[in-house]
Design brief:
Largest sheet: 4 strands, parallel
Number of strands: 7
Number of helices: 6
Shape: globular
Order of helices and strands: HHEHEHEEEEHEH
Distance between the termini: 30 Å
Low-confidence stretches: none
Strand order of the largest sheet: 2-1-6-7
């Protein structure tokens, strides 16, 4: 993995996760563990309203941390209830935390490949609806990363399991002096909680 990213991951262990958040994360741990023990593909689709901030942070960190913990059968996706664009501070934040970015297209909805390791494929990031053809349409967990999408989408077609794990929106700090600081803070919260999730996955069933 990228050395700067490994340093960020190492530092995640110092971030305290409250017990109530651990309870919120447990259904995701259970979903991944069951699939892993049964040698089944694990598809995680992180869903937010605009697929511009929290859902992308969650998708990208989840894929990188699955690799970090040696879980080979996990593919992570993201989507929204509507498509907009990946917000620029998301890319800036991930670069500062150790990812390498490659801009694959320009335009109002640019496409990025975020690399966590030199010899591994980039994680494709662009804004799309959760049911876009780029995403799985069956046999996936729908992880709701914002309360608005969770409330507005009571049913996600094709999802095996729906898991609400919501985060505060850093958008509230856009165009303020605190913008990058708050994006970094939210990114590290998401990363630390997903680190907790993947650290709990065991290879052998007791």
């Amino acid at each position: 993995m990228n050395p700067a990213l490994l340093k960020t991951i190492s530092d995640l262990k110092s971030i305290n996760i409250p017990e109530d958040r651990k309870k919120t994360l447990q259904p995701l741990i259970d979903f991944i563990q069951h699939k892993h023990w049964n040698n089944q593909p694990i598809r995680l689709n992180f869903i937010c309203t605009h697929n511009s901030r929290r859902s992308h942070l969650s998708q990208i960190w989840s894929q990188a941390l699955a690799y970090h913990f040696g879980l080979q059968n996990i593919v992570c996706y993201s989507g929204g209830t509507e498509a907009t664009a990946v917000y620029s501070s998301v890319i800036k934040t991930l670069k500062q935390q150790g990812f390498n970015d490659h801009k694959l297209s320009d335009g109002s909805n640019a496409i990025y490949a975020m690399k966590y390791a030199v010899n591994e494929p980039g994680i494709i990031a662009f804004s799309k609806t959760y049911d876009h053809s780029f995403n799985p349409n069956t046999e996936f967990a729908a992880i709701m990363t914002c309360s608005q999408a969770d409330a507005g989408c009571p049913f996600i077609a094709g999802a095996e399991k729906r898991i609400p794990i919501t985060f505060e929106d850093p958008k509230a700090f856009d165009d303020t002096p605190l913008e990058l600081e708050k994006y970094q803070e939210r990114s590290l919260q998401i990363a630390s909680e997903l680190h907790h999730v993947f650290s709990k996955i065991s290879s052998n069933e007791d």
